[in-house]
Design brief:
heterodimer, A: alpha+beta, three-stranded antiparallel β-sheet, B: alpha/beta, FAD/NAD(P)-binding domain, five-stranded parallel β-sheet, four-stranded parallel β-sheet, globular
Chain lengths: ~170, ~425
């Protein structure tokens, strides 16, 4: 049972429909979520006990099994998009918050409204390379060399992944 | 192992409860409610990002003003380089795109036990309250700066009507006139702002009233922000127009005689602009969170921005007691960290334990040149403080390229906050 759930969760996370953070804010959905790739099935969050620890896993179940719950779930006022797995550890939202702080200059989701370059849709490797170049001074800048030095390699990777997944 | 539908639902519900998920949302019962007071860079950003990250949370955003007038870029209005319309933003997108319940009303009382915010015309229950009340002025710290004097001696440190009035005073002054700008001891809203103001008023005088002059009375012992760059602007662009006097706190004003006094001298001027000392806005006092040792600013923790005085009340922006510059950019960043924390807490999860926020602040020094300061702050759990990270600093010079970025910065942060 545990193994099956973990496998399904992996499948869900690997699904291309779930790879866009604009369409897929990293939040807990209100209820069961239907998936195009698994017609007739929905994903629901369940708590499972592994080695004495309660952790949250996603589980695929037939849609009719939770139809009542789904019907009772109010429709979100703004576009909800596809679901994300709930954060597994307290630092899980660190990436989305630092990426959001970039948005003050570069626009929400990295979609720029002016002369400051947009970050939306930048290839991940390119983003990482530019941040390193700002850090070591090999790419001249007015301000980015001052910001870039504050972030760890891991944080740069997280930001890169988030912006790479946005459709500009 | 087979699982009956009923059994599955039972297991699922128990599992959810054990994992700390709010079952009320799943059952279609009452949604979690967040009330935010103050729809500036802090409050409006928090409202937008809460709705982006969890549309199941109901967000009510209360402000007494129907529109937002930006303090950043408002000094350009004083110089005649921008209009008030250019820097005025609406809350329309917050309502229509993000489903924020925007209420234009004045808050009259906050009951932190019953978790209720009262306004002139309504009452709003909350699970979590975010206050982004900005600043109030302490006119009582300057002798003679009473309600009547405030009609003639302006602060223009909250953008809007005061900005236009000060522009009119400067514009209608005779050529050969004297303008005095007084600024308070740090901390105050927008550290480089008073120096930018002096640059831009001087820029206008140079163009339109070249025989006039501006004297800056700075209560601080030295230029507080971007010192070498402002000094360079004054020495190279405005040496005939600007005189800077440190250690010169305005202690008294006489609006009849148009005199600004320091401990050392009385200055008679044609236009007097005194920015008074400040404290966290009145709304913070209503909630009982203006609790630092002087009763001036609001202590909070840097992971959630929850007040140290009252549970479930968060405080962001200029009102916070911190080592942050009191800037719109910081307020916008705090809005995001706080939004994330509130979303996570209301969903029974832990917020980001080591938040990072940044500040990027541009100042115009002329119609085509600007400068900036940039700092990133990272939470240090061992010291329980936000630490400025290595790398931060100021522009290498007055820059035409940065004037373009300064404009783009404003468009960027306005859109990130309100669109």
């Amino acid at each position: 049972m545990i193994r099956t759930t973990a496998l399904l969760a992996t499948l869900l996370l690997a699904s291309p429909a779930l790879s866009n953070p604009v369409a897929m804010p990293t939040r807990m959905p209100a209820g069961p979520v239907s998936l195009d790739a698994f017609k007739g099935w929905v994903a629901v969050p369940v708590a499972v006990m592994i080695n004495g620890q309660i952790t949250t896993q996603w589980m695929l179940v037939p849609a009719q099994a939770v139809a009542g719950v789904a019907a009772a779930t109010p429709a979100p006022a703004v576009e909800a998009g596809a679901p994300a797995a709930p954060p597994a550890d307290p630092a899980a939202t660190h990436g989305r918050v630092i990426a959001a702080t970039c948005a003050s200059c570069h626009g929400t989701h990295g979609i720029s409204h002016g002369a400051i370059p947009g970050l939306a849709g930048l290839e991940k490797a390119y983003f990482v390379k530019q941040m390193k170049a700002f850090q070591d001074g090999s790419r001249p800048a007015t301000v980015m060399h001052q910001h870039a030095k504050a972030y760890s390699d891991d944080e740069i990777e997280q930001m890169a992944a988030i912006f790479a997944a946005v459709k500009p | 192992m087979t699982m009956q539908r009923r059994d599955f639902l039972k297991v699922s519900a128990a599992g959810l409860a054990a994992a700390g998920f709010p079952l009320r949302a799943h059952a279609g019962a009452a949604k979690a409610k967040v009330v935010i007071v103050g729809a500036g860079f802090g409050g409006a950003t928090a409202a937008k990002y809460i709705r982006m990250w969890d549309p199941n949370i109901e967000v009510t955003l209360i402000d007494r003003e129907p529109k937002f007038v930006s303090c950043p870029m408002s000094n350009l209005v004083l110089a005649g380089l921008k209009t008030l319309d250019d820097i005025t933003k609406t809350y329309d997108a917050l309502k229509t795109t993000y489903g924020v319940n925007v209420v234009v009303d004045s808050v009259t009382a906050i009951d932190t036990d019953k978790r209720t915010v009262k306004t002139m015309n309504g009452s709003f229950a909350y699970d979590r309250l975010i206050l982004s009340p900005g600043i109030d002025f302490r006119f009582d710290q300057i002798e003679g700066y009473d309600a009547k004097a405030q009609q003639r001696i302006l602060h223009a440190w909250k953008a809007g009507e005061q900005t236009l009035k000060l522009r009119q005073q400067v514009e209608s002054m005779k050529d050969g006139g004297l303008i005095v700008v007084g600024m308070p001891l740090a901390p105050y809203r927008c550290p480089p702002g008073p120096y930018e103001r002096v640059c831009l008023i001087a820029n206008y005088l140079k163009r339109a009233k070249p025989k006039s002059k501006i004297i800056m009375l700075d209560a601080n012992p030295d230029v507080v922000s971007k010192k070498p760059l402002f000094m360079k602007a004054w020495n190279t662009l405005y040496s005939d127009w600007v005189e800077y006097r440190p250690n010169s706190k305005v202690v008294k004003v006489d609006a009849e005689g148009m005199i600004a006094s320091t401990e050392f001298e009385d200055l008679k001027a044609d236009v007097i602009n005194v920015i008074p000392p400040q404290r966290a806005g009145h709304v913070a006092e209503l909630a009982g969170i203006r609790t630092d040792s002087n009763g001036v600013w609001c202590p909070a923790n840097f992971v959630t921005y929850e007040s140290k005085a009252k549970p479930n009340v968060h405080v962001i922006g200029d009102a916070l007691l911190s080592n942050f510059p009191k800037s719109g950019h910081m307020a916008n960043n705090m809005g995001k960290v706080c939004a994330n924390a509130v979303v996570e807490l209301l969903n029974g999860r832990q917020p980001d334990p080591v938040p990072v926020v940044s500040n990027t602040c541009y100042s115009a020094v002329s119609e085509d040149r600007a400068i900036h300061v940039a700092t990133v702050f990272r939470y240090d759990p061992a010291k329980d403080q936000m630490t400025a990270q290595p790398g931060g600093g100021i522009s290498s010079d007055l820059s035409e390229e940065e004037a373009i970025y300064a404009e783009a910065w404003a468009e960027g942060i306005w859109s990130d906050t309100f669109l």
